[in-house]
UniProtKB/TrEMBL annotation:
Domain HTH araC/xylS-type: 231-329
A matching Pfam family: HTH_18
Keywords assigned by UniProt, alphabetized: DNA-binding, Transcription, Transcription regulation
InterPro entries named among the record's database cross-references: Homeodomain-like_sf, HTH-like, HTH_AraC, HTH_AraC-typ_CS, Tscrpt_reg_AraC-type_HTH
Lineage: Bacteria, Pseudomonadati, Bacteroidota, Cytophagia, Cytophagales
Protein name from the UniProt record: AraC family transcriptional regulator
SUPFAM superfamilies assigned to the protein according to its UniProt record, in alphabetical order: Homeodomain-like, Regulatory protein AraC
Superkingdom field: Bacteria
Amino acid sequence: MYCPNIPLRCCICLGATFMIDFYQLTMTAPTTDIPRLTTAGLWKQYVLGGDRQAPDLPPAVEDFYITRLENFRQALRLPTQPHRRDVNELVFVTSGRLVRGCNLSTIQMEPGGVHLLLAGQIASVNYLSDDVAGFYCHFSLDTIIRLYHREHMVRELDVLHTAMANKAITLPGKVGLAVRSVFERLLDEHTSRNDLSLIDAYLVTLCYEIKSALPEAGTKPRPGRAYELTERLRQLISQHTGCHLPLTFYADQLGVSPNHLNKAVREVTGQPASTLLTEARLLEAKVLLRHSDQPVGEIAFRLGFNDQSYFSRFFRKATGLTPQEFRKKD
């Protein structure tokens, strides 16, 4: 099976040895069963029939989109199955209750709650109460955030993601009012003029307002270039989930040497870049074990392990549990 989004020139520049490995890899490691949904695909798969129809989606919906949570409650058939998005999602609840999945975590959101889900993470929408209200927006870092804001935005998103990796945060009253006001302005701009320069500025303001509620808000920011490379590496790993490509491939895609990429990732995470590749593979294994009834041997095969016993050793070393034990665990 061919691994998507890999241009032939990248295979050539990695040399003949990798071409052989790549051929063997694509023959033995098909992509996993966690779908990657566009916004239109999400609505097509989960919108209710009858008089509940998907909203009209603008052509640039994958660049930026914002709507009220009430629209989701009225339209979506819940729960959605685990899926990936290529956009960053930001949700803010002003009333009612929302439950969403983020990788292996269940995120409970109540009034004043905000949660960020970065592009490439495994998401689901599990529950929306009848009285839920608030905002949902998503944006692409590559197409919306202008060049002079990009470094700052990558840094802010990393801080917010760290704070919200496994939970939503509840904003205090004053910050919550400010965030709600910015969301209202974003919605108004999106539905009227749709000036991307203003949307850009509002998104940056939104992140700064949310960050002001975090205990770490006063810490000194770390270098932006290393953060940007690390974030782009994470996105590329997600885009090629199931392909298990070497670090040299990702370095080539990012236009840097493997050593430079390793140095940047270590500066941000304290670990080598290969750790991100291993973590992505492990997360995929956990999700498939938790959310599917596929045999362990098939999951191992899908993740590129030709030997089930080797996969079991890999999994147990990382988690302390065998795949079978993890699957039985609540």
